[in-house]
Please model this.
Amino acid sequence: MHTQRGAVTLVADAGNIQNVLLKDLNDQQRQCVTHTYLNNTLCIAGAGTGKTRVIAKRIAFIVAMGHSTDSILAVTFTTKGASELKERVASYIGSDANMILMGTFHSICLKLLRQFAYLLDGYTNQFNVFNPGNCKLVLEDVLLDTIKYADPRTINTYINQISLMKNKLITPDHYDSYVADNLEVNFTAHKNGKLLARVYRDYESSMRRQNVMDYDDLIINMIRALDIPVVYDYCRDRFKFLLIDESQDTNAAQFKLIEKMSGFNNIFLVGDTDQCIYEWRGARMENMFDFLKKYPDAITIKLEQNYRSTKTIVKASNTLIKNNRNRFDKTCFTENSTGERINLHTATNSFNEAEFVVNEIRKLANTGYEYKDIAVLYRVNALGSLFENELASKRIPHSVISESCSDTIDLNDSVKYSVDNDNTVKLQTVHSAKGLEYKIVFVIGLEENTFPCYNIDEKDAAAHMEEERRLLYVAITRCQEKLYLTRACKRMVAGAWRILKPSPFLAEIPHVLLRFV
Ligand SMILES: Nc1ncnc2c1ncn2[C@@H]1O[C@H](COP(=O)(O)OP(=O)(O)OP(=O)(O)O)[C@@H](O)[C@H]1O
Ligand SMILES: [Mg+2]
Model:
């Protein structure tokens, strides 16, 4: 008996399931959606191969098979990703999609902790959540108490380090032994592990005293809550299907959470190791392989057919990413057209670069492209302002997509993104463009120490280059049709011109795929 609303329509008509959900899927995609829906599954797949599409269809399929919408938990990387997923699922099963718990790790944990936080030491269900700005104020007080000074740099160093520790599930009590075991720990006050442990501990107790959680606490506290039988039983009895997109960027804490919530043993983990771009925030692409160790019976499905981009773009991105040594081998192909060559522009200086890009945007708009088809992607936020000014002065509608932690948390649980629907050129960092696609993409600032950006944390040089290369891979693979790579020979940095060499990545893109414009 299928009592689920919405499901009834589809379950009643098996032919309809076939038509609606299984059309426009290749064999591997179809396997993702159907055959394995009662198993642990790892879907490891390149950019634009339909990962997000199969998640949406799999959710709809589960409902269509008569399972309750309450039994599904789907995790996306951003709140915007969640709203898009909701829309896609709704297009298959209608408004029942609203009853499915879909969101980022943060927003899902927030929702569950509103039910269960009363079981944790020091919290009520009405706990507050502090954004990073508020957390810094708490830390400032702690630092003034312990080391008697709290300049913004010190505050940042400590807050980042505490966050990293939390995401690695290292408590203040464990910090000392962690430092001893991990000599690569990157913290200037490294020798001062004990001091950090003390600051971390004081910060924790201050937050708890105020009935307040930071974003990381949402995950950690949910993990703690799952040690309590009523919480564990509730989740195990409720969530029969877990689906996780962008799993290459989950950190240790998030992975632990997945494990703890997998009572029914049915996890669908989707990701692309080549798109792991949050290592600096504790992301571990290894989680995907650990999943296979943890669940040896899990089925692995590879998706390699790209549906997004031209052959030229797919080839360029394949060639680029093959320079990474630390990767899971896969090669994307596409049946899309060859498309045009990749446009490479070298500007005399950064102002000329912005002028060039905006001129091209004007020309493209005159040839029938809409503004919303176009994105300008950069490595760090600061690079966007020249383009913003130039677009404003030419009266071209544009929006800057800000990248902040709030992208992964939606405290009001109301989805407020509308930028996708508006007809503007998007200016955004590569990080914030994850999962998105545009007909036309400009990747700007392809210079040494700009993209790849300067190794500010002095992390292992090879690992740094590999993460930067993955970022460029993400940038390039956002593009469907026309890709532009630009660089400036000099750029104004802190009031002085700085001469810049081309990005070493430019030499990794086959020359025959380029057109010099
Ligand atoms: N079988 C298919 N037939 C036609 N179009 C498809 C098919 N599979 C996926 N697509 C389209 O290809 C594009 C990329 O799909 P999707 O965004 O799901 O890929 P992805 O693997 O999640 O990409 P990313 O790695 O960037 O997150 C979308 O426009 C999607 O609608
Ligand atoms: Mg995706």
